[in-house]
Design goal:
One of its GO terms (molecular function) is UDP-glucose 4-epimerase activity. Keywords: Carbohydrate metabolism, Isomerase, NAD. Belongs to the NAD(P)-dependent epimerase/dehydratase family. Homodimer. It is an enzyme of class 5 (isomerase). The chain is α/β, with parallel strands linked by helices and about 325 residues long. The chain is built from ten helices and 13 strands. It has a seven-stranded parallel beta sheet with strand order 3-2-1-4-5-6-11, sandwiched between helices. The model has no long low-confidence stretch (mean pLDDT about 95). The structure holds nicotinamide-adenine-dinucleotide (NAD) and uridine-5'-diphosphate-glucose. The site of nicotinamide-adenine-dinucleotide (NAD) has 27 residues, from helix 1, helix 4, strand 5 and strand 7.
Length: about 325
């Protein structure tokens, strides 16, 4: 399969890795990004069209120019803490922006889209691992903004023949194995980059948020999934839709949980640089344990995560160490 695909938010962390996988699979990604949190240097596998998803006229222009066959939508504000402080920005960008984008796609005769959703739409687990039928009760405006678009997409499918796949990522992590792109969020709030920056001496210590959870070592459990495994799932979801597949959602996680302590051990082993870990209070809004049941993506998309936690940490370490060298040079 081939064709031009519009990648909204493709200059960001996950979107740029998906562009790499799309190009490897024979597609032509065109990135549409306002560069608010993205990086022009991450756009290496197709054109960059600068623009905002809330700008209908600019979207019409770009879609008319490139005539994409499908849309992949990553463009969003992503920081949970910020969403609690400024919910309106999240509803404006992630909800109103997504609707503007979907409407532009429909005007441009695009019939389907892949949407970046999140396990944060589930909220506190009522059973583990979580499958796609798990109740969705987000704990914060970020998660709710994503759930609202999932619900809008269900209506677009039922009433407007606009099909979609919602991909509910668990914890995206790691980097392109060749070190061309990686995770660069500003400010950074994710555990792996923060710990690696601590190992590099860029931060004085790592704060571990809570060691009093009801888990095997008291620290929170997450399902870390390699960003290139995520990218592979996007290519499969796109092909599924282009083959006429119906609207649905898939969990993207490995099915294996890792505690924060285990994660820090893996990072110290790989980097061989011990660093100080301070036990801090729980971070508000954090669930004790989030682990995916990924059976549906395995069965319907034929997807299998192939990279381990060590692969995640090693690829991320290479990227962060090279970033440090780049900024020093
Ligand atoms: N990183 C994770 O662990 C994770 C987990 C679950 C879901 N997600 C979802 O995946 C997607 C990508 O996340 P990421 O980590 O790559 O984030 P990111 O911030 O690196 O990428 C988001 C991109 O969207 C762009 N963008 C934001 N608002 C825009 C707008 N109004 N118009 C145009 N471009 C805009 C940013 O400039 C950035 O390039 C997001 O939708 C996020 O909610 C991420
Ligand atoms: O300095 C830190 C940072 C994180 N953690 C812990 O490490 C784990 C992972 O945290 P993080 O990397 O911040 O990811 P999550 O908060 O698990 O991921 C959320 O954040 C994403 C937004 O980027 C959402 O999309 C995901 O769905 C959502 O689960 C959690 O238990 C945190 O409490 C620490 O102990 N210290």
């Amino acid at each position: 399969m081939s064709g031009v695909v519009l990648v909204a938010g493709g200059a960001g962390y996950v979107g740029s890795h998906v562009c790499l996988a799309l190009a490897q699979a024979g597609f032509t990604p065109v990135v549409y990004d306002n560069l608010s949190n993205g990086h022009a240097a991450f756009v290496q596998w197709g054109a960059l069209e600068q623009g905002d998803i809330r700008d209908a006229a600019r979207l019409d222009e770009v879609i008319a120019l490139h005539k994409p066959v499908a849309l992949l939508h990553f463009a969003a504000l992503i920081e949970v803490g910020e969403s609690i402080k400024e919910p309106g920005r999240f509803y404006e960008n992630n909800v109103a922006g997504a609707v503007t984008l979907i409407e532009a796609a429909r005007r441009g005769s695009i019939e389907c889209m892949v949407f970046s959703s999140t396990c944060a739409t589930y909220g506190d687990p009522v059973r583990l691992p979580m499958d796609e039928t798990h109740p969705q009760a987000p704990l914060n405006p970020y998660g709710r903004s994503k759930l609202m678009i999932e619900q809008a997409l269900a209506d677009y499918s039922t009433y407007a023949s606009f099909r979609s796949v919602c991909l509910r990522y668990f914890n995206a992590a790691g980097a392109d194995e060749e070190g061309r792109i990686g995770e660069r969020h500003e400010p950074e709030t994710h555990a792996i980059p923060l710990a690696l920056q601590t190992a590099l001496g860029q931060r004085s210590g790592f704060k571990l948020f809570g060691d009093d959870y009801d888990t095997r070592d008291g620290t929170a459990v997450r399902d870390y999934i390699h960003v290139m495994d995520l990218a592979d799932a996007h290519v499969r979801a796109l092909k599924y839709l282009l083959d006429g597949g119906q609207t649905t959602a898939f969990n993207l996680g490995t099915g294996t949980g890792t505690t924060v302590k285990e994660l820090i051990e893996a990072i110290q082993r790989t980097t061989n640089k011990p660093f100080e870990v301070e036990i801090a209070p729980r971070r508000p809004g954090d669930a004790p344990c989030l682990v995916a049941d990924n059976s549906r993506a395995r069965e319907v998309l034929g997807w299998r995560p192939t990279r381990s936690l060590d692969d995640i940490v090693q690829s991320a370490w290479r990227w962060h160490a090279a970033e440090q060298d780049r900024s020093a040079g």
